[in-house]
TrEMBL record:
InterPro entries with a match to the protein in the record: SET_dom_sf, SET_SmydA-8
Protein name: SET domain-containing protein
Superkingdom field: Eukaryota
Entry coiled-coil feature ranges: none
């Protein structure tokens, strides 16, 4: 395993898990691996089976000339050898199994649910040794999955389809097909293609790492290099300490994380963040009490979604169901804003919703955090709010939005994480503009810092951002941003030098 950066141990509670084999420094390489298989996520709408870009699944939609399944025009016309679609293409073509056109190309397409499990099965045939060594020991929760609602659906849509019409009954037993489905459900990680479309891959080494809602391992997936994954430690890790990745989004509240982990990974997370009603002091799920001034309402038992919520100051109580209902209502209101065009009205609508719930949600609540994410990508980018035309008060607003998100990320994704790097990038520009604007007004200082100190602070932020994004595939949006950050940093350093 690399230069043995980690060791694999086993215990009844976690199964196999990884610990640091020696002291590791933040940013140090942990391991690299190629996926056993990669393909569309569950419930994907019609997409190209080579590059995963959305396609029209209707009658006239683009199809593979050989098998008749969805393939975008670029991949069809590429003339090059297909890499990812080749395996299932042979199976579909040999058995005359065609893709049935669908009415709605935005809805999940059940026909595509068989693709990634089939790729896992074909990869097993192609490399039995790797299957035995790396995939065989992986958890797939057979007993729990049999009890679940999806087992029967998969039995029909995937198992029966592959073993019947696709003619694979002799090659793959029903148990093996269900095992492939289970391996993906329990272990697959989400990746993005070079163009930023979602897919999933089976990465056996990463799957060994235990889950935690505050990970200390970060990974980047490189679509232009066969979806190779590079894993690093985000923070310093001492020899013998557990290595943690995360199977959920860190920026969701405890109730949502718990329900995702129970439903798809079949366990209850008992990390310190999940057990703490304040989510490590961030108050990420906390509501403000309407019955007293300054009271905070938190769950009396974060692991139980039906537990009572209570104000720590006046003792006011409400049910878990009432809290979830309130959160859903606000969520639905925000989801509607996603349909707005990218123009001033969109930004103003987000600001309005943000103000509307100011007396209900803790300032760092996950809903406020998600609104902040939407706002920082709008400030400085849409007509009427372009960077050059933002007055100081709105530049300061953008800085405040970034710093509030960082306060949360510094707790949930500490160290050298991609999420932090993306916010650092957003933060550097308004800081430079504010420094220049104060200087242009003839003010020697802003917040007690000289122009040079302010620009140096922005340079430090850019440097940290660029160093983290440098680990990304250069063809992806984050990789391209790494390059932009490095160029901006060089220019900024030149400006700073002229101040001497």
């Amino acid at each position: 395993m690399g230069d043995s950066t980690y060791k694999v141990l086993e215990c009844p509670e976690l199964g196999r898990y990884g610990v640091a084999a020696r002291d590791l420094k933040a940013g140090e390489l942990l391991f690299e691996e190629t996926p056993f298989a990669v393909g569309p996520k569950l419930d994907s709408p019609p997409l190209c089976l080579e590059c995963c870009c959305p396609v029209d699944g209707g009658d006239g939609g683009p199809r593979c000339a050989r098998c008749g399944w969805p393939l975008c025009e670029d991949c069809s016309a590429g003339g090059g050898e297909l890499v990812y679609h080749r395996g299932e293409c042979e199976v579909f073509a040999a058995n005359g199994v065609r893709f049935r056109p669908v009415e709605d190309s935005t809805a999940g397409c059940v026909q595509l649910d068989c693709i990634t499990p089939l790729r896992v099965l074909l990869a097993k045939e192609a490399d039995e040794a790797r299957w035995k060594r790396e995939i065989e020991p992986m958890e797939y929760h057979d007993a729990e999955r049999r009890e679940g609602a999806n087992w029967k659906v998969d039995e029909n849509n995937i198992v029966a389809f592959l073993r019947g019409p696709c003619g694979l009954g002799k090659r793959f037993s029903a148990e093996l097909v269900q095992r492939a489905i289970g391996l993906l459900d329990v272990n697959a990680f989400e990746g993005r293609t070079g163009s930023g479309y979602s897919c999933r891959g089976l990465y056996p080494q990463l799957a060994i790492m235990a889950h935690n809602c505050v990970p200390n391992v970060v990974h980047s997936i490189h679509p232009s290099n066969g979806f190779r994954m590079v894993a690093r430690v985000a923070v310093d890790v001492k020899e013998g300490d557990k290595l943690y990745t995360t199977y959920t989004y860190t920026l969701t509240g405890t109730v949502a994380r718990q329900s995702i982990l129970k439903a798809s990974k079949f366990f209850t997370c008992r990390c310190t963040r999940c057990l703490d009603p304040t989510e490590l002091g961030t108050h990420f799920s906390t509501l403000l009490c309407s019955k007293c001034s300054g009271g905070l309402i938190t769950s009396t038992d974060p692991l139980d979604e039906n537990a009572e919520w209570k104000c720590g100051q006046c003792g006011f109580k409400t049910s878990g169901a009432a809290v979830q209902k309130a959160v859903m209502t606000i969520h639905n209101e925000i989801d509607e804003l996603a349909c707005f065009e990218y123009e001033a009205g969109r930004l103003e609508a987000y600001e309005t919703v943000y103000k509307k719930y100011r007396s209900v949600l803790h300032p760092l609540h996950f809903i406020n955090t998600s609104i902040r994410h939407s706002l920082i990508e709008l400030y400085g980018r849409i007509p009427g709010y372009e960077m050059a035309e933002l007055p100081d008060v709105l530049l300061e607003r953008k800085v405040e939005l970034c710093r509030s998100i960082l306060r949360v990320l510094d707790v949930f994704e500490p160290g050298k994480s991609r999420a932090r790097a993306m916010i650092l990038y957003e933060l550097h520009a308004p800081l430079i503009m504010l420094a220049q604007s104060a200087f242009a007004r003839g003010e020697d200082q802003r917040d007690g810092k000289s122009l040079k100190q302010q620009l140096n602070e922005a340079a430090q932020i850019l440097e940290e951002c660029g160093a983290i994004l440098d680990w990304e595939d250069p063809a992806t949006p984050e990789g391209i941003l790494a390059n932009v950050a490095q160029q901006s940093l060089a220019q900024l350093r030149q400006s700073i030098e002229t101040l001497d």
